[in-house]
């Protein structure tokens, strides 16, 4: 039997160089290993952001807003009231009236920011058969809900007030000191009212009994209802006792919406509109008067050369037509002084004494004679008539000749 030996393995020299694999593997593997950590971090951030956004509650904002957790909101008080009562939050007078009508006999209407309501809306709410708590009410609300009461002062000092020894309101007596520093109210004689937390000028809390057995409570500040001050002093006890009822209607009116717009002319009162008519006619007549034309325009080439003699004759004719002898004699003296002062070494600002002295020294004339000639008194004797004016011209001409 013949056997065949197995073939011997060939060496690398015989088979040639073996195929090698790149040290980092394929390109896709390198890309995956380089980007897996940033991708994982980005995915984690996206998941966390989605979870946070799903758990976030969009809280409203605003003063005494029942769902606002900010310091000036009232979310804490509303949550406490909801444990024992049905709290209905409304944004308008009609919705509040419907909520009161649907509620039972034990209902309290809480009204904030009543200045946003119209007078007829306040009257409709005042006619509801329900106890009402007005927080810092306006004068319109006082007239509608509690006639016979008025704002008579304001407390500024301290952070809390005492109920007072004569306070007969159980809610205030049980609460003790409370942070009700704000407006103060008083009731007229004959008005059935209970006042607590007195200060100079009135009471910070006043409860008025209505003819139908309901009560209206006036509170001079909204601080005890806010999240910031609810836990201070006896604020929580006071508010929970004042709002103790089976149904609480929380009315916080929204700001009134702007409907339409008016032009500037529509805002002008009718009486003022009619007064503008004669004013416009007056302005029109004034424009026509000032804009009238005196005739056709005459073209003239400028400048116009006029001989000095013609200018002198023209001015003399104007003086003669108006009998302006005073202006004529004044022009004669001014012309003489203007020509003579430089010769005398004087300036135009020189005083009369200096001028008369210099002229007398140069001409040899008596200064007493020169004074009435150059600086006459009033009335001027040389302006009396034409002969006097001509005599002045001759004397000035002779004086000018002596100064040469």
UniProtKB/TrEMBL annotation:
The chain crosses the membrane at residues 37-55. Keywords: Membrane, Transmembrane, Transmembrane helix. InterPro entries: DUF4350. Residues 1-15 have a biased composition (Polar residues). Residues 67-243 form the DUF4350 domain. It comes from the Bacteria. Residues 1-27 are annotated as: Disordered. The keyword DNA damage does not apply. This is DUF4350 domain-containing protein. The lineage of its organism: Bacteria, Bacillati, Actinomycetota, Actinomycetes, Streptosporangiales.
């Amino acid at each position: 039997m013949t056997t065949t030996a197995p073939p011997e393995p060939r060496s690398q020299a015989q088979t040639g160089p073996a195929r090698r694999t790149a040290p980092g593997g394929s390109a896709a593997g390198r890309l995956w290993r380089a980007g897996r950590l940033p991708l994982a971090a980005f995915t984690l951030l996206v998941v966390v952001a989605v979870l946070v956004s799903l758990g976030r509650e969009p809280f409203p904002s605003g003063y005494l807003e029942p769902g606002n957790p900010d310091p000036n909101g009232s979310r804490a008080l509303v949550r406490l009231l909801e444990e024992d009562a049905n709290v209905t939050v409304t944004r308008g007078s009609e919705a509040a009236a419907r909520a009161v009508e649907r509620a039972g006999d034990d209902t309290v209407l809480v009204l904030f920011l009543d200045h946003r309501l119209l007078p007829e809306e306040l009257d409709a709410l005042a006619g509801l058969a329900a106890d009402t708590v007005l927080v810092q009410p306006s004068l319109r609300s006082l007239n509608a809900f509690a006639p016979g009461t008025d704002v008579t002062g304001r407390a500024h000092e301290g952070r809390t007030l005492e109920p007072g020894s004569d306070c007969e309101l159980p809610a205030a007596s049980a609460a003790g000191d409370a942070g009700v520093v704000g407006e103060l109210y008083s009731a007229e004689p004959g008005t059935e009212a209970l006042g607590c937390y007195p200060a100079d000028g009135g009471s910070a809390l006043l409860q008025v009994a209505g003819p139908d057995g309901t009560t209206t409570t006036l509170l001079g500040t909204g601080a005890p209802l806010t999240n910031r001050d609810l836990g201070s002093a006896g604020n929580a006890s006071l508010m929970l006792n004042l709002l103790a009822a089976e149904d609480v209607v929380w009315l916080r009116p929204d700001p009134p919406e702007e409907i339409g717009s008016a032009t500037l002319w529509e805002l002008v009162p009718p009486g003022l509109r009619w007064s503008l008519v004669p004013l416009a006619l007056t302005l029109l007549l004034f424009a026509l008067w000032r804009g009238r034309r005196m005739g056709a325009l005459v073209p003239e080439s400028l400048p116009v050369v006029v001989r000095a003699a013609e200018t002198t004759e023209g001015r003399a004719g104007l003086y003669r037509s108006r009998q302006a002898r005073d202006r004529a004699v004044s022009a004669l003296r001014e012309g003489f002084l203007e020509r003579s002062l430089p010769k005398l070494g004087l300036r135009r600002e020189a005083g009369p004494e200096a001028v008369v002295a210099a002229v007398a020294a140069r001409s040899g004339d008596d200064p007493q004679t020169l004074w009435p000639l150059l600086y006459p008194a009033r009335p001027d004797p040389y302006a009396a008539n034409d002969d006097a004016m001509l005599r002045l011209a001759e004397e000035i001409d002779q004086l000018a000749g002596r100064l040469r």
